[in-house]
Fold each of these.
Amino acid sequence: MVNKCPACGGYLEVKIGKYGKFHGCSNYPNCHYTFSLNRNNQKNTPKLEKAIQINDRIKLKNKTNNDIVEYKIIIPYVEYIDVFDWFGSYGPKYNSIIKRVEGGNPDNPDNPTIASDSAIGQLLIEKVVGDTIKYNDEEYEILEVKKGNI
Ligand SMILES: [Zn+2]
């Protein structure tokens, strides 16, 4: 199964980095899309079918005050721009820098979202109902995972 890069349509390759396995785009360095994988990469196990992925809507309960909040997990949109860097022996060299990022907005009252690559997003991805995460000294229980259309 080949996974397509949601940013550029290239294909995603499993790479191993400092923090474990991740999907990186075959068009790197032109495309910088990455997506972290869990330690075992058990993509088709029943557990992972129910696990949190991009496009899912989730319900979290704050275990301190019992507040229940609902979020959608989204892919952050990142756009790069080439800027002149220096003149090499074969002409000008360019460097890609980030031009625009649209991340999640958990405080949007109409559509609260969490970016998959944010600190809390990384904690949530591939967790299942009943799991608990710890974020900013608060504990959150995953109450519900509504699968999105991936
Ligand atoms: Zn790509």
Note: The pocket of zinc ion is lined by residues 5, 7-8, 10, 25, 27, 31, 33 (CB under 6 Å).
Amino acid sequence: MKFIFCLSVLVGAFFFTHSSVQKEDHAPYLAYLKSHFNPCVGVLIKKNWVLAPAHCYLTNLKVLLGNFRIRVKDGTEQTISPINIIRYWNFTDSYPQDDLMLIKLAKSANFSHKVQPLALATSNVRPGTVCLLSGLDWSHDNNGRHPDLRQTLEAPVMSDKECQTTEQGRSHRNALCVKFVKVFSRIFGEYVAVATVICKNKLQGIEVGHFMGGDVGIYTNVYKYITWIENTTKDK
Ligand SMILES: *[C@@H]1O[C@H](CO)[C@@H](O)[C@H](O)[C@H]1NC(C)=O
Ligand SMILES: *[C@@H]1O[C@H](CO)[C@@H](O)[C@H](O)[C@H]1NC(C)=O
Ligand SMILES: *[C@@H]1O[C@H](CO)[C@@H](O)[C@H](O)[C@H]1NC(C)=O
């Protein structure tokens, strides 16, 4: 959990120092996993399924779609309980490997301009492709436990070879590494989850609780798990 926090703090610093105006990004596919523990982010991939990191597993979590600001309601908020949570069969807490789970929602989400599913990767992404890192953030005047902004930043995907030269990339079988455009220069006490990597409007990576340090971010390569995701979420 320490790693997640570091990643979060550093990326929070990035957003804070490099965006003087915090504007809400669209990102209607982001799901906030609300619990009494660390905030986590998932992605709505079908009307009744959310893909998330397995380290976010908690029995009492709620999935918030649409607006998740607590103080301002705009009628787009949808809070849905999971009916089933399926962690990837080979996931263990001791490794950053296979850090994926599928959350089946007790009822289907209603799509709107604020709630839309995101397509899954259909191939591996070419190194150098500039992708969007999309996640949640705290606005300047939010001192609460829960984030209230969607944020995105751009970053290029690294080659597997380059990824393998980094310590955590080497120890992670199915990693997707991205290079943050600017090195984080300071730590700010505000944190965020840069939860997802989206390339050409497809979900390519999802956060692992493992910070690489410096200017590299490591994610689970979603494309490597497509068979499992499709099989698990297909309507029976
Ligand atoms: C399952 O996970 C462990 C630990 O990460 C790894 O050593 C092993 O190779 C994995 N097995 C398969 C079949 O992927
Ligand atoms: C979707 O809309 C229907 C009809 O308005 C409503 O009954 C249902 O509760 C909504 N679902 C969610 C997840 O909010
Ligand atoms: C697909 O999922 C079912 C359970 O939903 C499981 O029994 C089966 O082994 C899975 N097949 C593959 C290829 O993963």
Note: Helices lie at 2-18, 160-164, 167-170, 226-233.
Amino acid sequence: MPLLIPFNDIRLTQVSARATLPAHALAQDLCDALRSSKTGAGLAAPQLGILEAVFVFWPNRQEPVRVVCNPRILSRSAQTEVAEEGCLSFPNTYIPVERSKQIEVEYQDAEGGTVHGTLNDFAARVFQHEYDHLQGVTIVDKLPPHQREQVLAAHAKRLRKAGRMGKGAHA
Ligand SMILES: [Zn+2]
């Protein structure tokens, strides 16, 4: 099972390169890791330490997981909404993030076929969250600097504690 890199790994802050397609193996690893997370709605390749522009997400739990490669957000609605978001790279942390309610997107599937579509509400939010990961941006970057430092310090403490207990760092 592919493991998530720790929250303080430099790769979570780096911009991903364009993915080479087809990307079946990477897409499969992302789907496996997302399904095993139980709570995640999406997962991006940098979270596995792979700096390629690929992510997977559930528009909702009734639909199959979608594989998104080399995405572009063509337009974002002016209408936004603030809601709490979690991230598999920052377990048990929920941060209010303002997102556009509707976005128009274009991306490639794992085969390299072009997909064009409009996403709303929850699906739009998850897509924007995962798209941020490909730019090296995470939800903690949405916080004011002092709060961001507090959250990072709490996660550093969590990792040290996990290390002392001999369980290693998992997230
Ligand atoms: Zn995330």
Note: The CA atoms of residues 54 and 69 lie 4 Å apart.
